Amino acid sequence: MSLAPRAVLVHRTTEYEELVAHHGTHGQAAYFLRSRGRDIEEVAERHQRTRRALAEVTAAIPLTWRQARVERADLDRFLFAPQDVVVVVGQDGLVANVAKYLTGQPVVGIDSDPGRNPGVLVRHRPSDAAKLLASAASVSVDELTMVEAVADDTQRLVALNEIYLGAAGHQTARYRLGLEGDGGVVEAQASSGVLVGTGTGATGWLRSVWQDRGGRLRLPTPVENRLLWYVREAWPSPATGTTLVSGILTAETHLVLTAESERLVAFGDGMESDALELTWGQSVRVGVCGDRLRLAG
């Protein structure tokens, strides 16, 4: 007998909860904020809106369904099942945070604080949850393209917006860069790292780099099998070049980076705590991911 669907509510600790946890009490947190020209009531009100959104979405889950709840910090330890329906309650970035841990489960993005979030990924209001969950099996979804990095030791990293490859912190990253199948053309580089982004990421970090380079390459759409990549602040020297600094990756092309530093990292969507690590001589291959994020429209 097949199991009933499970609704997995994904959320993150609010700023108010973090402040109270750090300072011990509401009063001490309020004093801390006042000393910096802020009012805790604004922070507490946003916290209450998030709590109300979570309560409304929880109440909308069909009675025959199973339920689970996971906080953003615990995503890398949570086991998602094939029959799950993932309900993200929070900001757009929280959808990107959960995307890398999924394997085709449908995702419903609920905006917990309308007006403060762009709503690119959290497209729905808490009041929409009952209708969306009741028709979860037939609801229309957009299949959003993701980016994937696979190291030569089988480490794998997936991201919805972008993958950054470079040195941890602000040190210079040293590596050799080339396009797979490009006649063996490889360039030694020293830079602030390499950014490879999707059409979803074109609303964030990727867009800022794209604008800085004059917008000469067409930005991909979220569902398009096309990525853009940029080398950040490549440094010219007798040993390092600046020729291969931007380009397009399709489903058939990959960027290959070989570390020439003692330690390089690759992380996705700003999650530095869940990074892939490369040591001297290791290579990583970056391109369009075969998996898609199935986001309710």
TrEMBL record:
Transmembrane segments: none annotated. InterPro entries: ATP-NAD_kinase_N, ATP-NAD_kinase_PpnK-typ_C, NAD/diacylglycerol_kinase_sf. This is Inorganic polyphosphate kinase. It comes from Streptomyces fuscus.
